[in-house]
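User: Here's a chain of 424 residues. Predict its fold as tokens.
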Amino acid sequence: MAHKTKKARVMIVEDEGVIAMDIKRTLMDFGYTVTSVSSTAREAIRRAQTDEADVVLMDVVLDGAMDGIEAAALIHSSMGTPVIFLTSYSDEYILERAKITEPFGYLIKPFRDRELYTTIEMALYKDKMQRQLRESHKWFSTTLMCIGDGVITTDAGGHVTFINKAAARLAGLKEEEVIGFPIGELITLKDDSADDLSDDTLSPIIGTKKPVSLTDFLLIANTGKAIPVSVTTALIQDEKGNILGTAVTFQDQTTRKELENKLRHMMLTDSLTELNNRRGFYMLAEHQLKRAKRFNKEIAMVFIDVDGLKRINDTLGHSIGDCAIVDTALILKETFRESDIIGRIGGDEFVVLITEVFGVTEDVVTQRLIGTTDIYNQRRDCPYKISLSIGFVLYSPESDLTIDTLMAAADLLMYEHKLRKHNK
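Assistant: Prediction complete.
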């Protein structure tokens, strides 16, 4: 269905002509303007300078000496255009290289049209938010009192000479009680990415000659509350260059963190059931597979299909079909443990990765699921009954099975189960 609302301008970089044209048609159906289609990194860089695109869809693997990751880094650094990577690979090395370029999205081929649309819209929204944050930061940094940001100044020895209301509020301090105290005794700053939060990060950077800018840090307030902040420091010097002290600015990043978490949730969660979507399931399942290999433990994959969903949709309507999908999600949540990973990967297809299989067999899982479904069907006055077909595969750490092969094997067993039910 074509969208009449004017959308963003999108630049496509894809060396597979058929795929590029398919993406272009999809984008146009959604109402976007496709500024150009490039097949090499150098062509993409050249066109990006004149296209004035709002977002770039960049294939990671391209013909030529330069790949999509290098091109994305140049485009984003020179023009600030957000980049979404398209790739057929989920290799960790590629992901690590891609992360350095700060991509605004990452789609694994093949992807659904709606996934492409959602990723573009989230990338555009994230870019908008980042631009606003950068503009706000520049504005406040030129404002003397940094209203809205916390500001503390110290003398050359690191003792507090001034603290504004915002900094006092963040740190849980009283303005009139902190003057003259060493800043390291009042403010504790920790690296949010570090496993060990025992070392204070703030004291060592006070009085350093070069300005310091820190992101993703935690300010430990006097109340014990950990607040995400970004921190900048700058020396205060006289006309002769003598160090008089240090100015420290704290910017509360709580809203940004909440937005990032919300966007992350949107990217990894099925909107109808609130279960993991395909991307979210794969991310968690891959992590559990690595743990299983490392600790030599078994896990299990369960593939589940809702029987007769098409009939429900055709006879009762798609809104009722959606209710059946939501009911199935609730049944799965009741049947499996919180430690198990549940995902909806298609219209009527669900998967579960059982992370602890001690005492768990195919018969046990099947009977539990049938029992929960029967109870659910009996206690609800509903025009349909939930029926599920199940495929169960046990993973042994000695095997070379991947999440894809586990899922394919479980899918095949589910289909056989469905046929047996149909032939009864």
